[in-house]
């Protein structure tokens, strides 16, 4: 039986939780991508991608292999779009002369450290240390971000209460279920009060209750705090008509705009129809 969504979270998500020290860059929370291409060997998986993502929820939809995770790796600096310039590594970024990634108005190439301070990331694969407790995982991340233990503990306490995880503080991650682990990853991504949040399929494999809880929390926080969120998913019921939608297929941006406007433009009734029309994919989840 499906249990009702945690009422504590509902109340907190709607009213009570607010990050206490807004990041200096939050007013300019945004992501800009210009002429971004990327190849693995000879295979081009991103083809001159251009995107301007403002504050709010920006949903990235695309079939398997569309290039979503590669885009995330480039945005987080895990992959470089300028390898061709240095000749390093086997993977080859192309069109390096013109490509640019800006986060909160800062160029990733020149201001990587500042950008990392204003960015929270949840990767597709869990990156928590299974043998550390929730608290140890979060404190370690906070220390990497240069947050004092006292401030970190205060933020951890706030975020975990909202995510209904406070009783798991001293539990080893290995002992948590998938939904709880995902919530810990979201807490970790928010601990340093980022302006930009990157979520690579954060709800994949979760039960209905955990999914709903995470979606509600991220949406409420985005609205309250003015975050810019890039959210990759295959789950079309996570998209609302007000969200900005990016449809990526074969490394190409097929459409980019407010979902409602795109549905009107392509004369379809809903997101699954829009997705099928733009990607010729039968995948509808
Ligand atoms: N390290 C790599 N070496 C070679 N090819 C790769 C590598 N990583 C990804 N690819 C290929 O690049 C393409 C894009 O992969 P990517 O993981 O970015 O897509 P995706 O949209 O995130 O897919 P999914 O929805 O399945 O996670 C795919 O064809 C994939 O096989």
TrEMBL record:
Residues 31-275 form the ABC transporter domain. PROSITE patterns: ABC_TRANSPORTER_2. SUPFAM superfamilies: P-loop containing nucleoside triphosphate hydrolases (SSF52540). Keywords: ATP-binding, Nucleotide-binding. Pfam families: ABC_tran. Gene3D superfamilies: P-loop containing nucleotide triphosphate hydrolases (3.40.50.300). One of its GO terms (molecular function) is ATP binding. It comes from the Bacteria. InterPro entries: AAA+_ATPase, ABC_transporter-like_ATP-bd, ABC_transprt_ATP-bd_su_PQQ, P-loop_NTPase. This is ABC transporter ATP-binding protein.
